[in-house]
Amino acid sequence: KAGVTQTPRYLIKTRGQQVTLSCSPISGHRSVSWYQQTPGQGLQFLFEYFSETQRNKGNFPGRFSGRQFSNSRSEMNVSTLELGDSALYLCASSLDAGTGYNEQFFGPGTRLTVL
Amino acid sequence: AQSVTQLDSQVPVFEEAPVELRCNYSSSVSVYLFWYVQYPNQGLQLLLKYLSGSTLVKGINGFEAEFNKSQTSFHLRKPSVHISDTAEYFCAVTPSLTGTASKLTFGTGTRLQVTL
User: Fold this and answer.
1) What is the pLDDT of residue A96?
2) How far apart are the C-alpha atoms of A113 and A108, rounded to whole Å?
3) Which residue of B has its CA nearest to A90?
4) Do B102 and A56 count as a contact with CB atoms less than 8 A apart?
5) Distance in angstroms (rounded) separating the CA atoms of residues B114 and B103
């Protein structure tokens, strides 16, 4: 079974631009979560989507948004990019069958550099 | 809210020596606890988890961790490390009430550097 895939793997943008990152979860997984990883702030939870609805949200400004499609694929968008948005963005999916613990499986990440 | 403290940012160790990576957490509710490993230019891989039951949990690659509720700790150990264990290790928690692990709170990471 294929793992979590994220595209693109690397991205360079300039300040003020916007960017869209994509995540394809493991087949059958219904929950997709996004994390930002930076040297200064570490790993921080952005948001989680389940059945096309945002179920959890971290403490990030409104410039960060996401969505999930009916096939569970997810995208996140960052508008008006700032230098501080340079980071590795990780996506994780889980089965979320509704009972008990469901392991999150992480993708390789998208490395975003803002110049 | 939860918080995780990894006391060591870097741990150098010789190959075949034992190692312990320390993790303490703070939470007002019951939590699930995890250790993840990240190799260069890769995502996170789950090493082991504590959900309930036995406080000593065994994971992949010979790692184990012990949950200590009174000390709010979840230290990771390996009796004999290998060069291939060189990586970044993250401790994480999530509230157990939700029954899922969709909102993980991570520590700042410990860089394990194994040398010959």
Assistant:
1) 75
2) 16
3) B43
4) yes
5) 31
